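Dissemination and training. As part of the outreach component of the grant, students in the summer workshop were shown how a complex can be specified as a set of sequence lines and then modelled as a single object. The example used during the hands-on session is reproduced here so that future cohorts can follow it. Participants entered these lines:
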Amino acid sequence: MRILIVSLVCLFSIASAQEVIPDSIDTLYAPLDSLNAGLDQALDVLKMTRGDLTFRPDYLEPDAYRLPAVDYYMLKPLWLVDYAKSNLKYLNIASTGELAPDILGSRHYLFEQQDAPEFDKIRKILRSDRIKKSLPQETIYQLGRITEFIEKLQVRNSYTFSKYSKVQLDSLRDGFTLLLEEDVNSEFLSAAELDSLEESEDIWAEKLLVLGKECRSIRQISNDLDQLFNQPVKQHFSSSYTSWQTEFGQIIIGDTTANHYSGDLFIVIDPGGDDDYDVAFEGTGHHTYIIDYGGNDTYNMPKNRISPYFFGSNMIIDYDGDDLYNAGSWTLGAGLFGVSVLWDMKGNDRYYGDTFTQGAGCFGVGILRDDNGNDNYQAALYSQGFGFVEGIGVLMDNSGNDNYFAGGKYKDFIRYNDHYLSLSQGFAYGLRPKMSGGVGLLIDKSGNDVYISDIFGQGASYWYGLGMLADGGGNDQYLSFQYAQGNGTHMSLGILYDVSGNDVYSAKGVSQGCGHDRGAGLLIDLDGDDNYNAYDLCQGAGSANGLGIIADIRGNDAYIVRSDKNTQGYGNPRREYGSIGIFLDLGGKDGYSGGIGGDGRWWTYSMWGVGIDK
Amino acid sequence: MKTITILLLLTSLSFAQTEIDSVNQIVDSLFIRATTKNINFQDQVKSAKEALVEMGESAVPRLVQKMNTQDARSMLALVDIFKLIGSPAVPHVVEALGHNDPFKRRLAARTLGEMKDSTAVDGLLRYNNDPDFRIRAGVIVALGKIGDPGGIETAVNGLGDQDYLVRLDAATALSMFADSSTIDVLLKTLSDPYYGVRYKAAEALANIGEPAVEPVLKALKSKNDNTVFYLLIEISGNLKDEKLIQPLSDILKTKDPIARAVAVEALGKFQSKNARETIQKLGKTETHPLVIGKLNLINSE
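and obtained this result:
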């Protein structure tokens, strides 16, 4: 699985682009030159060099799940800016590209390719005269490439998981579900009960720490995924309703009427019409592949406590229409010990989910891609570009004015009586201190977007993970409460990167370019007249040996903070040395209220903090 | 479902608890309360810690068992409790330095530093060449916090360690020792590749005080890279020796605004009229916002 994740991270970030990027787009990134110059000036003031902005991967012994990409950017956190830029320019789930040797180094994980066993029953169906005679060419083609992909996945799964006994597989399934699920009633437990809960999770984590190690040898699924998506889209077709029952579930070729598909849907290819999908499976290890060519469709995904796609895979490609995606947890681009892709190409869509959804990965890859339309994304937890252990989660929205909401269900009762956990929207999470986190990316390329989260979100991370929210353009609004908007907490990395537009950022604290406990948090806004509003420990704040950078390169901006003691270029001492906070505004006529900053001023008021407004 | 799992676990634990010594039960129960993160139970934290301290040495063996924790809050609580229990706990914690659990060993070194009990020095010195860089660093900084001169040589040697965190803690220890025999090595350390080490070496030189004045003056006049130069200016301000006013005043005439800003800050720490006048004079001609900011800060004091 590690190769899959590393491959995808690198593939997405550095890969040679299949899309041709017009030169003019590069002018959008011209402010980056100013950023580099400004950073060097700030470092001079701090009596530092770029080499000082580094975090080592081994403050504690690295666990087996540390992603090379995380280690790489821990050592060079400033390079996150280039990584964000690359993701906005090149990220494309249908691109193959070259793996970047500077990221992978010697870590090209190559595992023995296994000979593919027969995928007998499905192949027989596909080769049958009934199929050949009754179905249009497009359908046969789609069926062929889907089954080819699933076959490869099955081979790898069987190779990987054959090393486990049934009890061990059950432990993986139950354990990771337990670690990821939350209970709204937990807030009512006593201190002793909460301690027991923590202890039980700790015991599970200890067990899973050992069990998970054999799950990293799945090979080159990324390339297979690319092949699956890289095929040219064929012409629309018409067909009559046909179905088969297989050991994997139903294969259905629909027609252009409004169909209601329900039950154990394995493969559904629908040529059009407003369709309803009610997917239901018992157990785990299932696969669902739906290709819908048009219509305003409703997808009701399984809401089992344990994901039916655990150890399995699912994919939805919806070509057109205003669609509604109803899910609980574990679906809508959620790869849990498997692969999951949801690709919606057109229409104003609504996505509803609970936990681990809308682009989430754990020992796997989850991708939600929406190409067009004004979309609504709503979830509670671990969602919208979320990477957990050995996982990558990507939510990529290419255009439209979109709304993202994450939170509102599971109270953060440890810290607050009136705030909710989000851990979403370009967020990576690891199990401290046992398992490093993954990579969570929320990439929105254009449109006037609204992002709302509460505790942990919006380009943030916790425990050796990498979280990124990159927004390419539009007048955007970012609202969160804590640990957000470019925040790395406990040895991890977070970046919020906004290329252009007049944006509004609002948070309480540990946000807006804040690194805490040897973590790095960056908020980079290249252009536009922006408003930044926060309370404390924010806007270029380093805490407990962290690194926080806020950099706004162009535009007439406003900065409001409540505290002038730990904001706008602030670094506090911890473990006998410093945390670094850098505030940069490199152009425009700016307004300040509440903090130490001022237009046209340079300032230092803590030993390891600096602010520059030009 | 999660609740069921927890209940099962609680049930299994309850059988085991019948075998547990009553003291350990009390320590465990108090420790849970002393380390709770939940805001609703914060009122229990202080009293639970106090009760554990009240138990004194009888609680120590069980608390030492908990030192393999990887939870930051538990670590902090253990350090606090051992500090308050004091010397009866020292031999137990020293023993933990030799344990095979790396987390227990690191926490033991950290705890001994916070306890500042000189009876721990010999025990700490046994591990100053430990293969684990975290132990080497922890031992050195603990020696510095204890302040026993026997640790100076170990700290000086630590400045040559390949690992920057060890060098950082070595410079930290030397800052605490503030021993004039370390001036030369500290001056060299101002060019360490890691900022934490450089800053701590600068702090150490300032802490040494008068014996460091001439060597710093000499270094200030020699050609250094900018980072070292800025640090020497800062050290000069912290040393506050009259001999340093003129060289600092000369820096105000240079073209480097960062050097001027650091020099203004340094001169601002002097109480002398001469230094104040020099700063005020600069105020009439200075245009760089960083320097102006420093001047305004001094004028507002």
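Confidence is low (pLDDT under 50) at residues 1-13 of chain B. Students were then asked to discuss how this feature might be tested experimentally.
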